[in-house]
Amino acid sequence: GLVIILGKIVIQPYVSSSIWAGIIAFSKLVHDWTGPIFIVSWLLCIVKWMPLQTIKMYDIKWFLVVGGYINFGPFKGKHPDSGFANAGEKMWFWTLVLFGLFISVSGMMLVLPGLDLPREASMLALLIHGVSAAILIAFTIVHIWMATALSEGGLESMLSGYCDENWAIQHHNLWYDEIKANGTLKYQK
How do residues 35-51 score in pLDDT, each as one tens digit? Predict the structure, then answer.
């Protein structure tokens, strides 16, 4: 999708017309065939993660200190309460839900020839599709950056599927208390 939308500016001036034709044809083919995979994956993410993404009062407090990234004055050394998903992760999830819907619907409008849409509707769908994709990509890059580079131990937890007990207490204390109380806390052997 990025090659389709930006390739004319970033790639085409630097390659021959025959190479550009091959790049754009391949990009469109891949984009059109991976669209349904995106839609199915998007739906599976919603079904799997929605029960854990409801907004709680402690999420508002999390936002007020930007998840502990504000680390000076009265906020120094304090990490806000968080459940299984912190407020930033919930914000990313709801961004995925909303803009994933926009991407899915507008993409189907653009790729299904039987709809026979007026030109104005196609142009609007193209605009919604591109803007929604850009927003979702930006949120995803920020989410990945904050979860890996800015959160010591975050990448290791994602790769192994386990997190250090101290890390869990610091970053997701309410979730830690919950799994400890209900007996689902598991230790890696």
Answer: 999 999 999 999 999 99
From the CB of residue 130, how many other CB atoms can be counted at a distance below 10 Å?
17
Task: Please indicate, yes or no, whether the overall pTM of this predicted structure exceeds 0.85.
Answer: no
Mean pLDDT over 130-153 rounds to 89
C-alpha dist (Å) from residue 54 to 90, 99, 136, 162, 169: 8, 18, 20, 23, 20
Contact 86, 146 (CB under 8 A): no
> 6 or 188, which is more confident?
6
From residue 153, alpha-carbon distances to 94, 146, 180, 187 in Å are 25, 11, 20, 16
Q: Which class for 112: exposed (0-12), middle (13-18), buried (19 or more C-beta within 10 A)?
A: exposed
CA distance 155 to 160: 9
The strand ranges marked E within 90-155 are none
Which has more confidence, 113 or 61?
A: 61
